[in-house]
Specification:
alpha+beta, 7 strands, 4 helices
Length: 126
C-alpha cells in the first residue's frame, strides 16, 4: 500500500476537503494522519482504492507524493522503537513516515516509508 503525503497551509478544514472528495467518489480512507506546526500541515492518507484516493486528492485541489509503505510487526514493549529507529539510522535509511497501522495480538503493526523503499525493506527484513 502507498501512503499519500500532502503538504497544506495550516488552517481549519484542509483534511475535511480531502475526506469529502473521497466520500463523493465512494473511496474509503483507511489510514489518516495529520501534523501541523502553525504554518504548514502534513496529511498522510491511505486507501485500498489508491486510484480513487489520488483522484479525490486532486478533486480537493491538492497534490500528493506517493510513499511506498512497508508494514512490519513489532513487539509492543519499551525500547522496541528505539532499536528499530537506530537500526534504520545505522543503515542510512531516510525515513519519510512511521505510523501505527494496527495491532495483531500483542504485536504493533507499523507502516514505514522512506526515500529508498528497497533499502528500507532490506533493513527491516520485510
Amino acid at each position: 500500500m502507498n501512503a499519500y503525503l500532502i503538504t497544506v497551509d495550516d488552517r481549519p478544514g484542509q483534511i475535511a476537503r480531502v475526506f469529502e472528495a473521497a466520500a463523493a467518489r465512494g473511496v474509503n480512507i483507511a489510514l489518516a494522519y495529520g501534523l501541523a506546526n502553525g504554518t504548514t500541515g502534513l496529511i498522510a492518507l491511505g486507501s485500498d482504492d489508491e486510484a480513487g484516493l489520488r483522484a479525490a486528492i486532486a478533486d480537493a485541489g491538492f497534490t500528493a507524493t506517493a510513499i511506498e509503505m512497508i508494514v512490519v510487526e513489532l513487539e509492543n514493549r519499551p525500547g522496541t522503537g528505539a532499536e528499530v529507529m537506530r537500526k534504520l539510522a545505522d543503515a542510512g535509511v531516510d525515513l519519510q513516515l512511521a505510523v501505527p497501522v494496527g495491532m495483531n495480538g500483542d504485536l504493533l503493526q507499523v507502516g514505514f516509508g522512506a526515500t529508498d523503499a528497497g533499502l528500507l525493506r532490506r533493513t527491516l527484513g520485510a
